[in-house]
Amino acid sequence: MFDTGPVFEDVLSRRLGSMHAFALFMACGHEEYAEEIMTRAVLRALEEHLLGEQPDRSLERAILADVVTDTPPAALPTGPSATPVQPADRHRLRLVSPACLRRAAERIPARARAAIWLVMVERRSYNETADLLGIDLDAIASLLEWRDVLMRAALDDSAGDVARRFAR
Amino acid sequence: MDCGRARQLLWPPERPRIADHDVVAAKRHVATCDACRVHFAIDGALGDLRTGLAGAVPRREVRERVFAAVARVRSVARAGRTVDRRSGRRVAVGALVVVAVSGLALVGSRLIDARSSTHTTAAYIEDYVRLAVREDHIVTTDAGEVRRFLLRELGTEISPLEAPGLAITGAEVCLLDGRRGAVIRYRTALGIVTYYLVPVPGIDERRPAAERASINTSTALVTWASAGIERALVGPLPQDSLLELARRAH
């Protein structure tokens, strides 16, 4: 009998852009790796869809299952690399490009990267993020503390970018 | 209240929320906590960066490769599903659907011989239904504009069918068995006729043939393949008229 549920390809077509942006962040800007992550996740989601899962839900979970495989990170690093970004840094933040931030993502654990993306970029609530990652609210708060490490690394990287441009 | 709880309750800051006791306490905490104020201020300063990150668009080749991978899995899944239990012959299980005047209604199903078409009838009908949530489309009566739209979206030169009594009303991108294709819609005296074109590299040429797909209304279906494109015409025309149009396009 004809299936009147959502067509997987149609949902995928709508979601592919956001999946790609997420995969690119998780892959720290490496395009080929991002495509690999995305394709693997899509095929896993399709498999689940063929067994009756709703495509929206399965796509979301499949990509997280693919990229968040590390154990919860140890304590935050100390020292300058984790100094909280201050309002005085605001003007320097304007120099940070998306590419620069993706490169900086390499400095933080995959689990923290995923939490930061879901909360800071997709603007999901802490509860929703905890549910998606299968962890509790305290763990979310700890993972989000890596934001400062990420932003500090991005600021350093963008300063390097600017210096390299002037050196040319 | 501690910082973690306050941030959780007030996240995301741009979303309106009911000011219950907890939320009021969280706001009071943020107003007096330097760390939390800095946290939200920095978040506010990241607006453009967030937009840039979330707006990364996959290249068309990447989209094509992902959809091609889906199509491969689909075809394997379909092949597994279509083995007739009694005879062991490969047949496609097609679903026959009526598109009712006032909406879409499911009315029945039957077996369709799969050798005549790469796609099952159900796949065409599936996409016919999918049009309700379409995205990439244009509304135009200009065949040249349709050609340019399809070249841009699919990377393939596709010419709309032109014949007396057929007036183009628009075109869009479709997904059939995970493959991206084109749909061109025409207005006729008897109703809307839909022309499907799905590029399938290496497909054998096939002459137009009416499918036994139909349907207890006047909707008819003709499929054929030419120039590396799987094609179908679906509409409320007499079968002979639809066949004549298909031969003209072949």
What's the short story on this structure?
The complex is a heterodimer of chains A (168) and B (250). Chain A has 168 residues and is an all-alpha fold. Helices cover 67% and strands 0% of the residues of chain A.
Give the topology.
The complex is a heterodimer of chains A (168) and B (250).
Chain A: H1 8-26, H2 31-50, H3 55-67, H4 90-93, H5 98-104, H6 110-121, H7 126-133, H8 137-144, H9 146-167
Helix pairs in contact in A: 1-2, 1-3, 2-3, 5-9, 6-7, 7-8
Chain B: H1 3-9, H2 21-32, H3 34-45, H4 47-54, H5 60-81, E1 92-98, E2 105-112, H6 121-130, E3 137-139, H7 143-154, E4 167-176, E5 179-188, E6 191-199, E7 206-210, E8 220-226, E9 229-235, H8 239-249
Antiparallel strand pairs in B: 1-2, 3-4, 4-5, 5-6, 6-9, 7-8, 8-9
The strand count of chain B comes to 9
The major β-sheet of chain A equals:
none
Low-confidence stretches of chain A: none
- Give the overall silhouette of chain A: globular
Percent in strands of chain A: under 5%
Mean pLDDT rating of chain B: 73
End-to-end CA span of chain B: 73 Å
Strand content of chain B: 25-35%
This entry's quaternary arrangement is heterodimer
- Which runs of chain B of at least 5 residues are low in confidence (pLDDT < 50)? 82-116
Q: Per the principal axes of the C-alpha atoms, what is the gross shape of chain B?
A: elongated
Specify Rg of chain A, calculated over alpha carbons: 18 Å
Work out the helix count of chain A: 9
Describe this structure in words.
The complex is a heterodimer of chains A (168) and B (250). Chain A is 67% helix and 0% strand. Chain A has helices spanning 8-26, 31-50, 55-67, 90-93, 98-104, 110-121, 126-133, 137-144, 146-167. In chain A, helix 1 runs parallel beside helix 3, helix 5 (98-104) packs across helix 9 and helix 6 packs antiparallel against helix 7 (126-133). Chain A is globular, with a radius of gyration of 18 Å. The relative contact order of chain A is 0.13. The mean pLDDT of chain A is 84. With 250 residues, chain B is an alpha+beta fold. In chain B, 38% of the residues lie in helices and 26% in strands. Chain B has a seven-stranded antiparallel β-sheet with strand order 3-4-5-6-9-8-7, sandwiched between helices. A two-stranded antiparallel ribbon of chain B has the order 1-2. In chain B, a hairpin with a 2-residue loop joins strand 8 and strand 9 (229-235). In chain B, helix 1 packs across helix 2 (21-32) and helix 2 (21-32) packs across helix 3 (34-45). Residues 82-116 of chain B have low confidence and may be disordered. Classes of the chains: A mainly alpha (168), B alpha+beta (250). At the A-B interface, helix 1, helix 2, helix 5, helix 6 and helix 8 of A face helix 1, helix 3, helix 4, helix 5 and helix 6 of B.
